[in-house]
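Reference record
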Amino acid sequence: MRYQLRNNLKFIGSALGLASVLVMSPSFSAPGEKDFLEVPPERIVWKDAGRGVKIAVIYGDLNKPGQYVIRAHFPPGVMSSPHFHEEDRHVTVIQGTWHAGKDDSWDPVATVPLKAGSYMFHPAGGVHYDGGGEEGAIVQIVGMGPSKTTFLYPKEGSFGEPRKLN
């Protein structure tokens, strides 16, 4: 009973942490039709999402209708638990090697390694898990809000226990 309570508290903490990062992150509003928006690296505000994962909202608001752009930094070997989103997402690997799994197995060995410059389309409802390779990874994700993430194994939390890529 005590173990179950501790796991439930871990999940609640992880889920609230990730949710607060996405809600509390500063976002850059949509510019007017003739305006340009520049976001140099030093203006990007990274927020901790747990287990060393960091999220930055570059453009838009994930909680409102309209386009958004976020970046996610995965440290080496940290993977998200299997989940899906209600909206299509376009993912570009900015730095490092990102490992993408396209099912609910949560088996890092079964992932596809995508190096910097790679692109991956995540269809709405497509179950996946992903994370950083040996050197970690930064990905940029573009979608249309409002965004919602549903985890298949909620008791494990957003990132669950660390998984090895051997």
